[in-house]
Write a sequence for this structure.
């Protein structure tokens, strides 16, 4: 393998989570008595910067008063924590791919904008047999993607150089994260990303399927 370490985005790259996030948002609106139900297509335009930002974007244009937004957000996070446990699954082929990478000696890590409090329970639930060395999510008072902070933390903790690492994601935020960190990047078009953006096309690699991704990472 060309790279020692693979740094994976989570939502839209390893797991199919959009419907779960959307269901949590719509349930929360209903609980608060707001007649707002976001569609799947709307949800695709909200995703990319983590669940908290997804909810903020979903609230824009609604009649939710500013003083209620914090309560809505807290309820959303509680709802999503429960919903993701049953509504979120790895994309087909991802588990098998990760097992092959691990068996070939690859270092596997995660850098996600999902809040750490939501990431911590879902990773072992969905990937019980995968030994991710580090799984970083969105943490209070720490920069999130596309800031390269998480990437730098991973490289420092594992004593890796930029040339040792490949960032694997599905969106413009992932490309920008890798670019800002000075590492190579692969964009996965089976995810939720925005592929018409010119800078996404500048990614080191672009793959259409999980199978293509597996072949790329193992070669």
């Amino acid at each position: 393998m060309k790279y020692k370490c693979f740094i994976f985005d989570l939502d839209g790259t390893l797991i199919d989570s959009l419907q779960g996030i959307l269901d949590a948002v719509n349930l929360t609106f209903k609980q608060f008595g707001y007649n707002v139900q976001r569609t799947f297509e709307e949800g695709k335009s909200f995703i990319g910067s983590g669940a908290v930002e997804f909810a903020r974007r979903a609230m824009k244009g609604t009649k939710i008063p500013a003083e209620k937004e914090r309560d809505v957000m807290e309820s959303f996070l509680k709802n999503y924590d429960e919903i993701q446990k049953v509504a979120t699954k790895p994309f087909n082929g991802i588990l098998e791919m990760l097992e092959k990478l691990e068996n070939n000696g690859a270092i596997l890590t995660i850098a996600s904008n999902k809040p750490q409090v939501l990431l911590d329970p879902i990773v072992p639930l969905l990937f019980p047999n995968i030994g991710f060395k580090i799984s970083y999510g969105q943490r209070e008072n720490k920069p999130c993607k596309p800031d390269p902070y998480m990437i730098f933390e991973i490289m420092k903790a594992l004593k890796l150089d930029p040339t040792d690492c490949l960032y694997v994601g599905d969106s413009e935020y992932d490309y920008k994260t890798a670019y800002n960190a000075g590492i190579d990047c692969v964009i996965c078009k089976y995810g939720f990303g925005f592929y018409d953006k010119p800078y996404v096309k500048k990614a080191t690699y672009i793959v259409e399927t999980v199978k293509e991704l597996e072949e790329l990472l193992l070669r």
